[in-house]
Amino acid sequence: MILPESLTYRLSQRPIAWFTPPAIPKRASALHRLWGEEDVTLRNFKAIFGDTKPVIGMVHLGALPGSPLHDVDAGIEGLLDAARKDLEALQRAGFDAVMFGNENDRPYEFAVDTASTATMAFLIGRMRPQITVPFGVNVLWDPMSSIAVAAATGAAFVREIFTGTYASDMGPWTPDAGKAMRYRDRLGRRDLALLFNVSAEFAYSIDQRSLPDRARSAVFSSIPDAILVSGAITGEAARMSDLEAVKAVLPDTPVLANTGVKHATVKDVLSVADGCIVGSSLKIDGNTWNPVDPVRAAEFMRLVRETRS
């Protein structure tokens, strides 16, 4: 099935509507002028988020069928009920977008169980009538499955490790950006923004170039829509010095903080980064595995609005 070319959200009318994507901007960044390319990496990102520094809230799905922690007694309806509550809390708090992830599917895999990806797509499909903001997906740690679920559900963006070589808890980690991007295009989703995490969690980079050099090289070789900078594990903050260094070499590419952004740090993070993804800080007691706390979520976005003003 060939999906429509692009997706946007008209919040004032109805949750979801299709639209014709804007033309590629004629202005070229200094980096792309140097390479003789148009500013293609900004097209999808701006089509989704405009000029806003987006704050993306995580909906961490419960452990899915096929994973050891799956709650058979609660079943699919239990997963759906918990995810809907988190989605509602994030949207009511005013997050610019949400992302559905399978962080509970531990131990993590590079080739995710088909039952897990099918269930993830099913759950998102069941929630589509309630989704009123742009949404993304992340099937840890499988770029092909992430893109497949995004194509099936009409997601606007995907987060994954697409480049680099790592020694990790899951074993040798060698993603293939070219294969993933060609798969996205074969599915008719060139409008699907690919957010490249260039500092993989639970892993050590075998590539000994500096993080800024790896990020700059990834933009040149693999045309991401945005670059993400992470801490060592889920919920752990990226170093501000890393964010600053990556943004310094990529002034014309969106650079987002991917992990560990907290209420006390969001102002400083957004003074450097072009947006952030936040999960653990919004949970009850700040615990990654707990449900979203509506009060913590609302307070986080209050601080964001204060920063923007």
**What's the name of the CATH homologous superfamily?**
Aldolase class I
Poorly predicted regions are 1-38
Strand order in the largest sheet? 12-11-9-6-5-4-3-13
Tell me the Rg in angstroms. Answer: 18 Å
Q: Do you know the CATH architecture? A: Alpha-Beta Barrel
Overall SS class? alpha/beta
Structure characterization notes:
With 309 residues, the chain is an alpha/beta fold. It has one domain: TIM Barrel. Helix content is 37%, strand content 15%. It is built from ten helices and 13 strands. The protein has helices at residues 30-35, 40-49, 75-93, 114-127, 143-153, 177-186, 211-222, 240-249, 266-272, 294-308; strands at 7-8, 17-18, 55-60, 97-101, 135-138, 157-160, 166-168, 171-173, 193-197, 203-205, 226-229, 255-257, 276-278. It is globular and about 50 Å long. 46% of the residues are buried.
Name the descriptors:
309 residues; alpha/beta; TIM Barrel; 3-stranded antiparallel beta sheet
Question: Would you summarize the structure shown here?
Answer:
With 309 residues, the protein is of the alpha/beta class.
